Structures are given as C-alpha cells and as structure tokens.
# Entry
Amino acid sequence: MSPSLRSLCFGLAAWLFVAVAAGPAFALQSNDSCANAQPIAGTGTFNFDCTSATTGPEGQSESLCYAFGSAAINFDVWFVWTADCTGGAVVTTCNLTADDTKIAAYPVGAAGCPAANSALACNDDTCQVQSEIIFQVVNGTSYMIQVGYFPGAPQPSAPGQFQITSTGNCGGGGGGPNYGITSSMDYKDPFHGEQDSLGNVMRESDMCMPPEGVPGLGGGTGIHILLDGADLALPLYALCTNPQPGTPCFVEVDGFSRGRDHLLQANGGPGTERDFLFFSVDEWAKGDPQNPQVPSVTTEGASGGQEASADVFKLVDGLFPGPIPPPNPSGEGPWGNIAVLDGDGKRSASGFQYPGCGLKEPNPPSTGPLNAGSNSDSMNLFEGGAVEAGEVSPNSPVFFSLDGNLQDILDNTSGSGSSFANGQFLPGDILMSGGQGTQLQVYATSQQLGLDLLPFAMFKDDIDALILSDDGDGVYEPATAPYEWLEEDVDMLLFSVRRGSPIIGQLDSIFGLPICEGDILIPPVNSGGGLVGVTSPGIFVAAEAMGLRAGRDGKSVSDDLNSADTGGHSFYDCNGNRTEDAVDIANGTSDDLNTNGVPDECEDYVELCSGQEFASGLVGLHCPCGNCDPSLGGFTGCANGSGLGGKLRGSGSTSIQASQADWFTLSGSQLIGSQPGLYFQGNNAINAGSGAQFGDGLRCVGGSVVRLQVRFAASDGTSNTSIDIDATGGIVAGQTKYFQLWYRDPNTTPCGSGFNLTNGIQVVFGA
# Structure
C-alpha cells in the first residue's frame, strides 16, 4: 500500500475507532487480551481469529511498530509461544492470508502482558500488506506474539493463519548486514596500482572487499584483496608488476561468480518473496527519462550526484518471477530500483548516506583512459561462511569473463583486450578456473549464450555482468526456457553485454525487442514460448524495469549494466523484519531523519534537522540568510561565523539506571570559542524534524522544553554536559526525547542575530 493511501487509512482510523466505540460491544475472543494469551510451542502453522477481537491497550505505542503514521495494532489477539531452539525465529503471515496484518513479538512481562516499549520485533508490510518478523530466541523461553491489523483496515471477516519457522538451525537471524560483497575495478580506476589496506598492489583482475569485510558507513580505512589474478589462473597476471591507472595489465575481469548465486524461483510461492536482484551501472548512467514515475539511478547518476558507478542498486520487490518487460507507458506498477549500498559510505551530494564498499567517489563522466572515481566493474555477494569467501580450488572454482577491445563511444576509449591476451578467448566466453596452478578453461562459449551471431564482425560481443548457479559439476548445461534451471542437471546463467557489443539492437528471443546493454539476458529461448527462428539471447529483465535508459530505437544511448547478482536475503536488515532497510525507508515504514540509510529505530542517537544544503535537494530548511553549512561531514546546524555549523552529538548509556561513569552526555563542536551555550530538551521534533528558522539557525526541538545546562565553549569550540540529564530532564524508561544546543555568536554572526543553534538529536531511553 502506498504511503499516501496509508495516510488516508490512518486518518480514517480515528473515525473508525469512534464508530466502533459507539457501537454494540463485541464478544471477546478467548485470547483477545494478552492476559489470556493462547499457549503455542515450536515451529509450524497456527490459526488466529480476529473477526470479533477488540483493540486492547497493550502493544499500541511501541517505537518498533511505528509505520505509516501509527504504532497501533488493531483487532489484536495474543499468543504465548515457547521456543524450541536458540537463534532466529520467523513469524509470518505471508501467503497465508490476504488481509492487511501487523504482528509483533515481546518478552513475557511480569504479570503476563508485555511491558511497555519492550517489543523485540514488529512489522506491518513485508510481502504486499502481509507481515513478517524475525527475532532472537532462547530454547525453552516463552515470548508474547501479537497478531492484528493495520489501523484503518476493516474488521476481518474470516480467520487466518501465521507460520513460525527457524532460520537454519534457528540461527543466523536478526539485524545487521546479511551479505558480504566483493567487487573489481577497471584499469581506469584510481585504485589501479595502489596498495590495499594489507599492502598488496591492486590490479583490474582483483576482487576486493570493504574495509571490515561487510559494507559500513563512513568509508572505513581502505579495501583489501580477497582474490587476485593468480587465484584466477590468469597467465599475464605475474607480468603486471607496476600497474598504473589508465594503463591496462590485460587481466581485466568483467563478469564474476563463484557459481553459487541465489537460484531464482518460478512461481509465487514463499521462495519468490526472497528473490532479489542487485546491480551496478557505469558512470554515464542517467536513468530512464521516459518514465519519471519509475525510481531510477538519477539521484546518484550522471544527471544527479555523479556517484552511481560505485553504488549497488536493488530491483524493487514484487517484479519476480520474470521475464520482466519494460514498464507500460504510464509507469504504473512496481518498477525501478532502490540504492542499497554506496561506493564510499560517505554522505553524497544528494544529501543521503548509506553503507558503503570502500570505493572512491564521485566519478563524474569523462572521456579518456583515467577516471576520477571507481566503477564497480564486477560484483559478487556472499553470506558469512559461504563458498564465495573461500579459496579457489578445482572443487570450488571461480567463473568469470575477461574484457574485450570494444570502443566505448562515450568514454572514447577501447577495452583492455584481456580476453584474447590470456589465451585467445572471446570476451563473450564464460571462463572457469580451479585456482593457482590450474589451466584456464572455457565453461560456456559465446555461441552457447547466443552471442557473436555475426562471425565476421570486427568486434566481438563482450559480457559485462554475470549471474551463475552451476549444479556443481563444472559443466555448462544450458536452460532453454526461463526457470528450467530448477530442474536437475540444468544451470542458471544470466548476463549483460557491454556498450558497443554487436548483439545490441538485435531482437531478443523472448519479447522480440532490440537488445540493450542495460538488459539482464538469458541464453536463447528456443522452446517454452521463445520466438521462432530467433537465436539471440532473451531479455529476462528489461533495462527500463530497473529504472535504466534503454535505446530501443537504435539511436539513443543506453545505460550500461556493469555487474549484477541475485540474493535471497536483504543486504541490511537492522530491525529484523526481513525487509531491506533501504526499502523500509523508501516506503515510509521506517523513519530516517538523519538520512544515513539506517532506520531510526535501530539507532541509539539520531541526528536530525540539518543546516546543510547539498547539490541535489536540501536536508532541512534553508538557513535564515543562506548560511547553510557547505560541508558533507555529518549533520550540523546552520553555518556560524567560522563558516561551519555547530554539531551536537550524544554518547554514553541511554539507560536511565546508568551509573555516573556511563551517564548519557551531550557534546557540542564547531561552536564559537569561549561563548556560552544552552543545552535543552523537548518532547518533539519541530516541523517533522526539519526545524524552523530561529536566529542564525534552525529551532529543531520543542514541546515542554527543559533547560538542562549552560556551558561555555572551550577555545577550540567544544563543550559538553556534566550533569545527570535523565534526572534533570525527568526522563523515564521508554520515552523518546529531543535535544539541541543554543549558543552565542556575537561578533561574527552571519545573519546579525548574535546566536545560532546546532542540529538536533533524537534519543530513545531504556530501563
């Protein structure tokens, strides 16, 4: 359901509540109250009946349950569930009801009902309007499960079912990053020839990992090599002893896979809910201008922040199973993408921040052999402990393609010619390596993939992205129809081709559309509905469906798909609802007031109300006299006489029972030295966290304001509180409070008021 419809439903919810309260009393369900929760145990499918349930007072104001303007769960019934394993437990209504459900889990309270603000997990929409949560459990321990409906949804007319399962051996669930990632560069990358964080020289063959192995905010300290050209058994790797940016070593890897990529499902069953497609694009990508309604790479791409080439995007949920054609002209339906990983993990010119891979940004489009930033030229996702993170061996091979010598009409440069140089392979061949000391082999020829249909063409088709699930025998057994790879002894292979490949413009074998470099392709579909007589690849996911430009007219330039991979889990899912954090934020099911890509409910401290203005868009309001902080170094207030905005940060424990050594503390920086400042507290964020102009800054915090402490800034413009803020502010467990710092700027005041304010902070306090 769209956020606008959610708002309408939430508005109707108040009317419905009054109407129900004024009407005849409902007969209580036996488990309508948490005090009479129905006992259940173990995994399995359980019935629930809300047809005559009331909306009880418990579990109606949990911060984890806040979605689309309401934390409430209507017409709720209660269960007390005893876990039969230790680890992650999944509770879901997906594919078990058509109703608009909402579910939550809690520890069992002292009196049976859960304590306020104790929710372990809560979710409204995971699979359309059904719900799913995942939370950590201990074998033999009991938990409260609340099953109900979104406020505004009608009283259900029929019972439903929910299912409880475990993740693996009841382990591996919960929040945090679900995937690690490796990526390679091209020879034009500024990293080419530099040392990684372990002191090894990086080349265009190497698969590199983020600083901590998984994506993180802030860019980290530098990437490191997981697999290099020797692991891929590239003959020319040893000769590249002094690589330089802009000069190829002739070992450039394009498509890459360990042959264990997530297998895409064929139907609308439970597995389909976990079929995700991730991809990256080159620095010239602009998005689809024909369908402005479709989410695209525009904000980060060539027409926006110029950072798309190092980012990872995710195809919006709900499009699989394919094949997926271009959107209809109105752009209606679930089309496009959501950015889920950033190149460097730093705040971009578009004003947003999300976990990054340690690459270099920005990378504005430019001709010639040197790039200012990184292209994620190939990409591979893996779960912790998976084969993708292990060594290459004959029993655990690696699959990849090598770069050809195509002329890029936008870069005005040629490819490296690595495919021919390492054994006279074609750039459309998929190669297989068993590691160092083995011989490079052809796993799938370009002809098997429907490429190189013009044998006498000057240039050969060049594979760019590769997704492969081999059945384990290392022998390519092609699927002749979509999802035939679900059968025994058939392999799933999807790919894209590089800009300039001769196959571009040829009709595909599924839709009869001209092929573009942004399409995800499958080998020729000669049965199962394929076009008779067409031997070219089939379009499995059209570029436009991913929010990319597609020059179907044979004249327009298309966006180039650099890399792709499939997955069955979200990259980041900190709130444990098994939905991508980026999707939660984009859909409005989670707030992200500090625009750092992390749902606010997952953070102890949330900065808000920025006085910074970015190249594309504005976080917060314009500062009073255009005195926005021009830096991208995290949230600040409006600029003061130093040219920068004052920063407010929180530290210490958010528990109201913390000892003095662990008190929650507020700290200010980038203030005016030797000038006084007032730390204060409020109950709400003004203007939904955007603030209102006040003095030289923005007033971010209001509602029952409490003056906490006056502190003079040191000469370096820093100060911090020294009091027990919990006691001074009268804070109790479960409350959300907002904080800000007012400070004087009498001599250099930009707007003439003589005072300014920092950004604000939101803090949730616990017991």
User: Anything to note?
Assistant: The radius of gyration is 28 Å. The CA atoms of residues 57 and 327 lie 45 Å apart. Residues 1-28, 168-175, 615-620 have pLDDT under 50 and may be disordered.
